[in-house]
Write a structure and sequence with these properties.
Number of helices: 13
Largest sheet: none
Mean pLDDT: 80
Low-confidence stretches: 1-6
Number of strands: 0
Distance between the termini: 77 Å
Helix content: over 70%
Radius of gyration: 29 Å
Order of helices and strands: HHHHHHHHHHHHH
């Protein structure tokens, strides 16, 4: 019984025979080709040129697989043992499909580079453990090919994704990020920061009680966050507008709305009224200018116009809350 707990279900790489090493290389090349084709399918609609790059890379992996199968046929016959990377301890992993489905273009390129580096290390180690001269040469050649895959990707990228296309694809990726996360999040941050100013500061000056003011701010922030999140998710499914997943947009809007309100509600956990109020006022100042900065950076709104819209508008709401609280 105890042996079952201390024995790993995976084989160590050093325990593999030369036939098993070849079989592992074959299955790994098959997996990598499928991954590259999956990337191509994922990118084809928005990034057709990059999709072509991954199709060509899959073709390279398929060529490697055929070379390995031919070597196995010459040395060991037609029957290839079933051994995959998940059967081998400390072997480089591949993410499952559901973890790769929503990667950005830059994440896919980085993942491909990581795949190539892992394959290179495998072939170097495999070649060192092989005594047959022809097999050792093939594994060494494949190691050099995998090391050069980054150059192949660059070459294919120059052929299929010249600089103007890369710039266009990067712009598309950036635009999608802005539509799915930045716009809803910024709208939420503005709503949470500005709309909660009046009730929080009105409660503060009306009661003079920091704890009661915090409860008002907490309820206003959470309520506004839930409302904004549901509104954003419900009013547009993203299919026609291209704004992306309604769930992602709703979460971005709801979370940022809540954080926008909590920013100047949390200082009222300080029991001293004026210390809490001054701290909250300083936070409001930085919040409003941060929103203006985000508008300028991601929404390309001229900074002075953003400052006028956000800072001036927020200051008026803050003043209204203080006047109402004093009344």
């Amino acid at each position: 019984m105890l042996a079952r707990f201390f024995t790993s279900p995976k084989r160590s790489f050093s325990s593999l025979s030369e036939q098993e090493i070849l079989a592992l290389a074959i299955s790994s090349e098959e997996d990598d080709a499928r991954i590259y084709l999956a990337y191509a399918d994922q990118l084809r609609e928005q990034y057709p040129q990059s999709a072509k790059v991954f199709e060509d890379m899959a073709e390279v992996e398929h060529t490697h697989r055929n070379q390995l199968i031919e070597m196995h046929r010459q040395r060991f016959g037609e029957r290839i043992p079933l051994i995959r990377r998940e059967h081998v301890r400390d072997f480089y992993d591949r993410k499952p499909d559901w973890l790769r489905a929503n990667q950005s273009l830059d994440q896919i390129r980085t993942e491909a580079e990581t795949m190539e580096q892992g394959a290179y290390r495998f072939y170097v180690e495999a070649a060192q453990r092989t005594t047959d001269a022809a097999t050792r040469k093939l594994l060494g050649d494949l190691a050099m090919a995998e090391q050069g895959h980054e150059e192949i990707a660059s070459m294919l990228g120059e052929r299929h994704t010249p600089e103007d296309v890369k710039s266009e694809e990067d712009a598309t990726s950036h635009r999608q990020f802005v539509l799915t996360y930045v716009q809803p999040g910024l709208a939420g941050l503005m709503d949470g920061s500005v709309s909660t100013l009046a009730p929080i500061f009105a409660a503060a000056f009306a009661t003079g009680d920091t704890w009661q003011t915090f409860l008002v701010g907490l309820s206003a922030s959470v309520g506004a966050g839930i409302s904004m999140g549901f509104t954003e998710a419900a009013h547009d499914d993203g299919k026609l507008s291209g704004r992306g997943s309604p769930l992602k947009r709703g979460l971005a809007s709801g979370i940022m709305t809540t954080l926008g309100g909590l920013g100047h509600a949390l200082p009222y956990l300080i029991p001293h009224f004026w210390t809490a109020t001054i701290t909250a006022g300083v936070i409001v100042f930085f919040e409003l200018w941060a929103i203006a900065f985000i508008q300028n950076k991601y929404m390309e709104t001229p900074f002075l116009r953003a400052a006028m819209q956000v800072v001036l508008g927020g200051s008026l709401v803050l003043a209204a809350g203080i006047l109402i609280g004093h009344g």
